[in-house]
Amino acid sequence: MLLLICGLVLFLGMHSVHMIAPAWRDRRVASWGLMRWKGVFSLVSLAGLVLIVMGFGMARMQPHMLYGPPAWLRHANALFTLVAFVLVAAAYVPRNHIKARLGHPMLAGVKTWAFGHLLATGMVHDVVLFGPFLLWAALDFGVSRRRDRTAGTVYPAGSARGDATALVIGAVAWTGMALWLHAALIGVPALA
User: Fold this and answer.
1) Are 56 and 69 part of one and the same domain?
2) Are 47 and 87 contained in the same domain?
3) What does pTM read for this prediction?
4) What parts of the sequence cross the membrane (predicted)?
5) Pair (69, 58) in one structural domain
6) Contacting residues for 7 by C-beta, under 8 A, at least 6 apart
7) Nearest Cα to 99, choosing from 20, 12, 167, 175?
8) Pair (18, 35) in one structural domain
9) pLDDT mean by block of 10 residues, the chain; 192 residues
10) N or C: which end of the chain has fewer CB within 10 A?
């Protein structure tokens, strides 16, 4: 479990620098240059992700039940995850109403993914993984929305084409994950 926690601290910590130490981050970018900052950011994040994957795998070997969710929440989680995939796709698809409305659909997608998994799973290692992601995404979403309001940020208007593209990409990615990749990568069938 310690490896999982260390990975979460590295990964989520690096992704929180812009919230908790924006002036420090800006000084690093000014001193090192944007590309070097992105390189350090990527390396630290990758190290954190590797530790999360390894730590979660090890923690699953010694499962401890914290709560027992009803079986129907597994099916609800499939819906939450589908919505999360569409939200993440909307972060990258230009000119969609989701991004125009939310501003930060990636963070909304992470919140939705983590919340759905917390509802559907009840093991300690699941709560240790998904709980911090939910908390981080909720805090970052709030901070980012306030920053946008303060800066007067306006996102490009959405279009039906952008909405359809985000929906199709999200649904196709979700289908691939639900039918094949979740079982292959995580070892648990998503739709069982």
Assistant:
1) no
2) no
3) 0.92
4) 41-59, 71-93, 113-139, 166-191
5) no
6) 47, 48, 49, 50, 51, 52, 53, 54, 55
7) 167
8) yes
9) 97 96 95 96 98 96 93 92 98 97 97 97 96 98 95 94 98 96 87 74
10) C
